[in-house]
Fold this protein.
Amino acid sequence: MERPGDRWVSIVLSVLLHGSIVGLLVYGWMLFRAPPRPAPTLAIEATVVDARTLRGAPQAPPQAPPAAAPQPAPVQTPPTPPEPEGPPQPTPEELAQREAERQKAQAAAHEQQVAAQKAQAEAAAAAQARREEDERKAEQKRKADEQKKLDEQKKADAAKKAQDAALAQQQAQEAADDLKRSIAAEERANARAGPALASWQAQIAARIERAWIRPGTARAGIQCVLNVTQVPGGEVTAVSIGQCNGDAAVRQSIQDAVYRASPLPPPPDPSLFDRNLVINFKPD
């Protein structure tokens, strides 16, 4: 497996190699463009002779000037073939390793995609399950509310029926009580209309007459209506004089006689007792 350090070493070596190649190319170009150097001059030894001296002397054949030394041709550096630009071509081992890494990365990406799809499907299923659970709970709550309302309605109906029954029973009891009271009142009225009531009223009038102190202004034939209020036991609590043919002294004496006659005699039948009595007082 390629290590990160090996990759950096390869990059540094590649940069150094390309730098060296570029430097050589620049150096060769500079040599090629430089002007040719002047040919070196040869040193010649000569003797100065006067022309007059040379007139009588035999002249030597002219000598050809010495040939110039051949100038060396400039040395041209053959151009270095250009290096391919860019990073070096990978080796088959590197290509195989890269392909393996690519396939591994693709497999990892595929696994991640599958995992993501699985997680998404699980999330969707969980959401669907939650929705179904919420709907089920809502349905249960709705049914429970309906059942509760139905039970409350039943209870209200039962309570109303019981109330109506109790009211009907109360009304029936009141009707029975009214009937009983009516019967008792009728019986009392019948009893009072009989000789027992007359005998009791006569006893009360006789006791009042015995207790009466006749004033001097009283004349014969006195008739007065007495309204007497008593409590159980015959105790008189109030007296008022109704229609009466006597004067004020007679009225007051009769009222005082009623209080002196208290307690009044009891009735022969307890059903004849009445708190408010009307007595016709006729002392003569």
About this structure: The mean pLDDT is 81. The radius of gyration is 80 Å.
